[in-house]
Backbone:
């Protein structure tokens, strides 16, 4: 990371903050943790447990919560904000645009945009992309190399498709959606009829609808529905290598960590959080705000607000208590054998 | 979904059925569940548990099992068949060809077919495909965009390769195979020798052979063998994001659900069913018709016909019973402590 | 597999070995197991448990450990070496170059190498590749079709990128690295701040650094770091469909089997071995030489040299013992009920 960011540029994105100490610091070269920061770096106190590191940090600029007690050193500047981590994110977006500048507007000459595709003016389409007839690409969309957008698919404004994304026919993305590299949206659902001892494919005629501000991690797969739609709700964030089956409905603002598997026709209400590698059997309902621990196996409906762990999944507290008791099983069996002898 | 399908077109794919009620219904606009169907829709009774919804359904056409008792309403038509779900699938294939029409025959001008590749006349090869020398592409094959077919690979008649599939050198696909988007067939197996404290790669000289009527889900990976072949048997259906190691042999008509991991040299006999996220240690044999529950961890050979669950895997019934008893451990420990006191 | 390899060609890669029996055997057609080998095949004794198969094997050439007792038959040759499996690997590399010959040097005419990319002379870049400005490609690098190398990414000498690899901006690969088909290196980390009830993306400004001699399996994903780097140590081998989160550090010579998930900021010391589908919660340290069984769930730091299993993970021996006792729970509950009655 090698940048040149001035204090003035930072104050543009953090307009109403209070400076303490040296207001001539900068330009800044990078961002680092409190401990590793050198002179010229920006650091921040995101987690109170590191507050002891602030006063010894060599960072030239430190973002702090308003209630932090302490003063900057010479040639150091403190900025107090409501949420230092978010303030840093705002600064980092400026840095991001420098380190990873958007490619120039326009459609790369190697790409294939079929007649009948509707592409807004202000888009970027990288090399070797294939946009089929009937597809609609909104304004401000950025499409990296090797992307496929199928017939009648829709890509909302400001959405980003990273390299090698496959958005299959008739699937729809909202605005500001991010599909990371290798994501597949709209593959055929896994459903078969048994006919004369053979598995006969059930056609999947539906689509996938992804609402505004959803992000999907690299190489994640989302299958199209049988008739209506597979739907991912607004603001939901899905990590890498996740499997989402046909007809699944995910609510708004859910978090689904890497390698989770969600079987066909599962329904998540809003604000569900799922740890990595957890799995869901088909046709379940998961209530609003439920939390599922990593690697859990869910085979029944989940009540709103519950927190489950294990396979079979139990309430988190019970699962933890049983885990403790399991470690005592060798002792229990021994004590029991002793007791049997004496009884 | 927006289609216009006439009763006549339906009767062409369901030739020997009996109509009841209004034989002037249609054209039909879509397919829906009994409950959600509107006038103009086709619905079906696939699961007897929904039979109570038939007589109140607003669907214009309902596919029913022969033994259903009841009569259509005005402007409604019933069709009785042996298997309503399969009859629907036959109708849906007609709809599918309209919603997702095959691209025109021929090789897209942007694609790169090397000298020495053998491509049948009636194939479709989309944009940005790379077909290496010595590859053989059979008649009726449909290849979507961004597909790689390696040297001396074979693709049987009527097989479909979706976007971004990588079929590596010397691997062979039978007829009517479907590889969904992002599938990798023929990557190098994961095998190393320890030499002077380093992991030295073991070359993998074999191939992957996929028999007729196999389907493979999006982003699934199948490694080539060390010498002979990794083989997937006829009619087997594999879901998304599955890992199949080198030298694995999967029998005929197996079902392997998403995110399953199968280590090197495992052998499945025919008709094995594996739930999502289950894993298999290397070199195991899984007997004919065995069923493995989701998330199970299999470390020993599996007898034909058995049904296993858990890690370490136990018979399904024992695993369920132990799960119940585990929930009673807190109570058992307490009762035991009481008993010790009184003894 | 169809090759023609002479004994002389074999002796070139195994220079100091001792021949017994017929030194006129060959040319050889293939490699097979002792049991399946036919006349004209090469076989080897890698695992002592198969030594009983040597003297009945029809292989024309057998690689054996020095201490094997027995003599070749007519028309058969034995070669004794320190490590038969590694000797075979050396032979197989010769075969590999014949079965999978490297494509011709040079940049395929369909590929897009941007101005400002630095590409060494002796590289192979296949069709439909995109090399962005500022990228550096070292000598002897082989890049297959549909690969993306982002701006300012570095690819060390002799490294191989298989089909459809996405190496995103500013990420760095050492020498002799292998990225199998579909690998994504440098996708954005999964990190969000909660701001006014929304998940606000945390920019990820860092990179991924992959050291020399690392191999990464098909469709595996490695996220870029928040500030500094995600790093994979020299000689580490990672299997297919693995998830490696942002800021992870993997030591040297580690083995990570398929479908493992490693959350953000986890740190592995050297020589760690992880079985398939195991998962790691964030910010953990895993000590040197630790072994983690397949499907384990790791939620605490792991001591050097330990061997863990299960979720929650226990020492392997304790986990095995508890597994045995769990199977006895039905009996224990019954005996306990009897004892309660009699007390």
Residues:
């Amino acid at each position: 990371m090698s940048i040149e960011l001035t204090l003035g540029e930072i104050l543009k994105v953090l307009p109403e903050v209070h400076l303490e100490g040296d207001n001539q610091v900068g330009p800044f070269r990078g961002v680092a943790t409190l401990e590793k920061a050198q002179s010229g770096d920006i650091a921040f106190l995101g987690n109170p447990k590191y507050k002891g590191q602030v006063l010894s940090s060599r960072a030239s600029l430190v973002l702090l919560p308003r209630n932090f007690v302490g003063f900057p050193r010479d040639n150091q500047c403190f900025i107090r904000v409501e949420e230092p981590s978010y303030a840093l994110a705002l600064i980092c977006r400026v840095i991001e645009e420098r380190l990873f500048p958007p490619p120039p507007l326009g459609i790369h000459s190697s790409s294939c945009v079929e007649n009948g595709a509707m592409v807004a003016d202000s888009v970027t389409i990288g090399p070797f992309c294939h946009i089929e007839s009937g597809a609609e690409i909104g304004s401000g969309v950025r499409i990296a190399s090797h992307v496929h957008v199928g017939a009648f698919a829709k890509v909302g404004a400001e959405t980003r498709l990273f390299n090698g994304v496959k958005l299959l026919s008739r699937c729809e993305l909202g605005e500001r959606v991010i599909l990371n590299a290798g994501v597949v949206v709209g593959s055929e659902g896994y459903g078969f009829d048994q006919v004369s001892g053979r598995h006969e494919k059930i056609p999947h005629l539906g689509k996938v609808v992804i609402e505004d501000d959803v992000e999907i991690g690299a190489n994640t797969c989302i299958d199209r529905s049988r008739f209506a739609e597979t739907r991912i709700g607004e603001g939901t964030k899905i990590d890498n290598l996740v499997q989402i089956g046909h007809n699944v409905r995910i609510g708004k603002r859910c978090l689904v960590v890497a390698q989770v598997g969600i079987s066909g026709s599962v329904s998540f209400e809003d604000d569900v959080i799922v740890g990595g590698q957890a799995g869901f059997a088909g046709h379940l309902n998961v209530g609003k705000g439920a939390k599922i621990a990593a690697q859990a196996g869910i085979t029944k409906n989940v009540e709103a607000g519950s927190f489950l762990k294990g396979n079979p999944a139990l309430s988190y507290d019970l699962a933890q208590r049983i885990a403790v008791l399991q470690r005592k099983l060798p002792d229990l069996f021994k004590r029991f054998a002793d007791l049997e002898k004496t009884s």
